[in-house]
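Fold this sequence, please.
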Amino acid sequence: MFRRLSSITLLILIVIGVCPVNASAVTVTLGVGKVSTIFENQPENSIGRGPAVFVGGDSSGSPRRGLMDFNVAANIPAGATIVSADLTMYVGMVAGADTGTPDATPRTIELHRIIGDWAHGPTGYGVQVISGTDQGFPAIPPSPTWNDRRYLQSQPWTTPGGDFSPTVSASTVVGSTVNGAYTWASTPALVADVQFMLDSPSLGYGWMLLNPDERTAGTYRALYTKDWMDPLLRPQLVITYDVATVPVPAAAWLFGSGILALTGAMHRKINQSQHAISVHPSRRQHDDV
């Protein structure tokens, strides 16, 4: 009987001690940490705290590029595995709207992982309207500009216009509906970018937003930033992740150890009883009478 009990107890301990516990997937929504616009024809201008980020060509076909970054490591536990990532942004204005002829052609906007550090300056802080701001404002250090990662701090981009991977991490077609939501759906490259931001936060610098038609006149989209007045229209990065497998807590080990100790005590008591009977058989016979 004891051998059977010991086998069951040992099996319980093996199961408790060896089998990991997997937590179910967790989904979080992050607001953008920093966002800026740089302008080719205004290389000393920037927008860092304005209501919109511009992506595409202005009326003369001069490119505008957006930079954005999310603080992934501050919101997801180290060691987690990123499962999916979806970025949603909202249109605030389209090129040509100022003159009454808004661009009606849907434009593709791509995300490219930035590979050079950049600063988020206060340029444009307090501006509440988007119209009339597509040339930016004189850069206030350390805002990024077309030529510099940090304006007036001797930290130029390796390539004017920003340093970023040529690989497209994700793309979506953005229409002309004001307040319309557009989502860059999860891709393996986008997931890899977010995983990199989590695992190497000091080297994860976010994404460059590019419009392949940026040298075509009147093609930009102005997308709301975190400084837009309506929080529901600000950028959102929705991330689903799995936490690393973890062992059963120490309390379970203590519980299992207690079972084993109790079983051992029972075993010793049984052995002692059997030994007493074998040494004094006459006592057993007398008891039976």
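Residues 26-242 form one domain. The radius of gyration is 32 Å.
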